[in-house]
Amino acid sequence: MALSNTDRIDHAIIEATMTPPPESPPPLSDTTKAVVSVALAAYLIGLVLSIVGNSVSGSSALVRTIKGRLFSPWMQPAWLDLGFDHPFTYGFPDDVDHTLEIRSRGNEPAAMQFPGERTGEQAARWRRLARTIAVAAEGGNAPPLTAGVAAGSFADMGIEDVTVRVLRRPLPEREALATDSRLRQPHAARVRRVADEIQVIELGGAAKQAEMAPLLREPTRAAPPDEEEDGDE
Amino acid sequence: MNDTAINAPVLPHGNAADRIASTWLDYWFTPADARPLAAVRILTGLLGLALAMSYAGDLVRWFGPGGMLPPEAVDGWRPRVGLSPLDSVATSLGLHVFFAALVAALVAVTIGFPSQVACVVAALLWAALLNRGPMLAGPADDCLAILLWCLAVGPCGRAWSLDRVICDRRGLAAPRPSPWASTSLGLLRIHATAITLGVLCAQLKGDDWWNGTAAWWLAAGPDAPFVDLTALYRRSEYAMNLVTHGIVAFEILFAMGLWFDASRQTVCRAGLIAWPIIGLLAGEPLFGLAMAIFSVPWVWSWPR
Asked: What is the pTM of this model?
């Protein structure tokens, strides 16, 4: 049956004004909700244990064990095992400006400083690295990182015998009339490659003089301590 | 009657267990608008690009062959399970390919194509990068990882995305509220609280945050704000105390206010301004921005 003009216009209006129905997401089944709820509950427990277990104050053996066995194996690779313990400052030496310096020990001494001219987050990453080495030196754990940093600089320095130093610029006291701008040296080590082995010889700061790092596999005579002294620059 | 009321789970409210179950289901599965997630997605992608760029200049120097941070040197700073796929990347080319993939994933997160897959890929690659050199990571890096994982759960590409444009061209109608959006927003809220409480607890372990001098150390530190506040603090101890206590007070209000309907929007609006300022004062501007992003979903009453 042929449509009249009025009918055609009505159909056209209806088609033009019709919008597709809203895309309705399928409702979640009870099973899905139950499975997701269990997963969320497990994650929330892991989140709490991560915060408790990554505190700067340390954690109990119970928390460490539960977190280490049940949660860290899947939270750590995803960078979810976090304590969020960022105080920003305690006014401690660890909070001050740290600089990493690498100096060659050849006839033509050259030096690299990090962060150097870098700014912003890029500079902050170098400061974190320098701070990590300084803090590790206090516990005697700096040699592996010092060796890595130094070995990574051999190509740039053109020599496989360098001095790595971490320098600290102390924060000024509020009441102090003059700023103490002298740099502190919490860690210094001579690093060289001898017969394909990396030697780390700690020079000062928190480290002991002329101590051989465990990286040295072959018995080799310890180098004399560097002329640079412990303590203030 | 609105969608929320229609789709809310109906449970008997007879006893405490039922009420807890009902509250749990309401919190995680009541269908919610996906547009707040879309806003978080765009801002997270931009934050991720800014953070990734801070690695770009020194990537090979740190992680390349013969770099300063060989895997054996950083092993002492990461747990046994914190290994990174980047440990096995032995060439500069491989490192650059990895980094290009990370940047591409973060661009895909920003433009929203394909949104959720991009979030998962970006989160995995970001975690791999952070696990490769954990001593380089800062608070903003942690927040980015959390944001990406939270977004991966929900339909963050249903609005303001290339995904949406493609759906529009195919004639698909605008999506209705989704229960997964609620799950994702719920995770964002919990993490915003957890991060704030973590920071707060860490601060309150130090005397400086109690005696009001922390603001001085922040202003005098290496990452001091762009405006030198030390002169002001030297002149006025009260100003220094006010800033220190103000930071702590805001963090307490933010962590609590997120959980009450009456205060949520107000604290989130305040967070949009206060967190970037705290970030600047603390020398962690990107952390401040990341925390502001956590506030975004509840800043507006999103119109239908």
From this structure: 0.87
